[in-house]
Amino acid sequence: MSTLAALALALLTSSTPRTDTTVAVTTGTRLELENLMGDVSVDAWTRSSVRIVASHGRGSTVSVELDHGSLMISAEGRMGAPTTVDYQLTVPQWMAVQLSGMDGDIKVSGTRGTIHAETVKGDVKIEGGSGAITVASIEGTVRVEATRGNVEATSVNQDVWVIGVTGPLTAESVNGQVVLDRVASPRIEASSVNGNVMFTGTIVPSGAYHFSSHNGHLRVGLAEAANVSVDATTYQGGVHSAIGRSFEVVKKGRRYRMKLGMGAASMELESFNGRILLDTPEAIQKLIARYQAGDELEDESEDENDE
């Protein structure tokens, strides 16, 4: 379908504060949505069509263009002015989605295609998905659950939560916590500048894991039966093991090492001003549950149990 034909068919100007339309799509079509202000919610169904329900101001224009394998959605107010639109979209399970916004939350649930979702002032939540999954917010919380694929999750000023994910993972925050729970990944890069990093999950024998924080603590859940070599580096913090095994001192006050099993996987732990704690997965999950319930985790300073 040509661009002009698509525009002729799908330019929707509504005098009422609601647009509701359904567009047929073929396998491989990609959804692209830019929304300046307002929330975006995406759910999946088994039909080969996209339903677009948009709540907006009177006189706003919702433009839907199907061209060159992409279904592109955008909106504007009277005389081209910015407008607030809340979208509820239902897409085929296979559809890849690319969503961007300035001021609003984004939620994607039940899709199986690749996902790219980013916003400036809002939360991003992803449930399900496979392939490449990239999510980001500057002022909001980022949460990714039950996905399979390569995940990149970042927030500047809030927390990053990654729960029950399978696949390579990069999780970063500047001023928030990074929480990884029940993750099964062959490769993890997780870091925060001013927040804590918490981890529980499956250690793959050939895996590589790197956790770091400048001003926060690292809390890592490891079973004593894990098969991993752990290298810990700290400058003004301490290291502590509560899993029945002690760290070997490489350079007192700086570098420590521990080998569990055959040490097949590699794990690097780095903190400049914070502590590094190894504990059982169950203990770390209790900490995560407390934090999720709203408890502020205490600022643990170096004590006599540190190495």
TrEMBL record:
Tell me yes or no: is Signal among this UniProt entry's keywords: yes
Please give the name of this protein.
DUF4097 domain-containing protein
Q: What is the lineage of its organism?
A: Bacteria, Candidatus Eiseniibacteriota
Q: Which UniProt keywords apply?
A: Signal
Signal peptide positions are 1-19
